[in-house]
Design a protein that fits this description.
Layout (H helix, E strand, L loop, with lengths): L6 E2 L12 H4 L24 H6 L15 H10 L2 H6 L4 H20 L4 H6 L3 H12 L16 H19 L5 H17 L12 E2 L6
Antiparallel strand pairs: 1-2
Helix pairs in contact: 5-8, 7-9, 8-9
């Protein structure tokens, strides 16, 4: 028997937001929170005249208690994988959603016979509208498995927010301003066209296999 895949946390559930289509698509750009400012207390902050005089002689920096040699930090600058640090910004549930939306985007590009990387780099309003309508029309997965599909306007709004993170992860750029507001209007029209539910229900676990092909 095939094991059921890990559920997405209820915060990403289909019907967790809003009671009507307008409330499902907030046109305000999301603002990233910042950590509270902290005072650095674990580094040597003492600077005196003797330090200035000793600058040409840096042997004291290589003391045993200072741990790593210069080559270690040069390697960190030149060869560390930045993507590992970026992934740590997301919870496991968020990463599942990001990977699911990215996978659907790749399948869409394959379906229309285009290269996903090129399409992502040259993303346009028309491409985004077509992609989300394609997602709304997906009813069958691999092996003929029936997909639950997108049933609510809040789910569509969540997927747009997730796609913006997918885009940022792939290109290093953000989708903001006019493009973001335009796609919110597009999604409202798609929600009406496909008669998506706007009713608020109790949060339920949603499984990746119910959303992906």
């Amino acid at each position: 028997m095939r094991r059921r895949q890990q559920p997405i946390p209820s915060s990403a559930s289909s019907d967790s937001d809003g009671s009507d289509i307008e409330s499902c698509f907030d046109t305000r750009d999301e603002q990233e929170g910042t950590d509270a400012e902290t005072e650095p207390t674990d580094v040597d902050t003492d600077v005196d005249e003797d330090d200035e005089a000793d600058l040409p002689d840096l042997e004291w920096l290589a003391g045993e208690e200072n741990a790593q040699p210069p080559e270690y930090y040069l390697d960190q600058e030149n060869n560390s994988d930045e993507s590992e640090d970026e992934d740590e910004d997301y919870s496991d549930g968020s990463l599942l959603l990001l990977d699911m939306i990215e996978g659907n985007f790749h399948r869409y590009c394959k379906y229309i016979r285009k290269d996903p990387a090129q399409v992502m780099q040259a993303i346009s309003r028309r491409t985004l509208k077509a992609f989300f309508e394609w997602m709304l029309n997906q009813r069958q997965g691999k092996g003929g498995r029936r997909l639950a599909g997108i049933q609510s306007a809040s789910t569509l709004g969540t997927y747009w927010k997730v796609f913006r993170l997918v885009y940022e992860r792939a290109t290093g750029e953000k989708i903001e301003g006019k493009m973001n507001r335009h796609i919110h209007r597009v999604l409202k029209k798609l929600a009406k066209k496909y008669r998506l539910s706007t009713k608020k229900r109790d949060n339920v676990a949603m499984y990746i296999e119910d959303l992906a092909g």
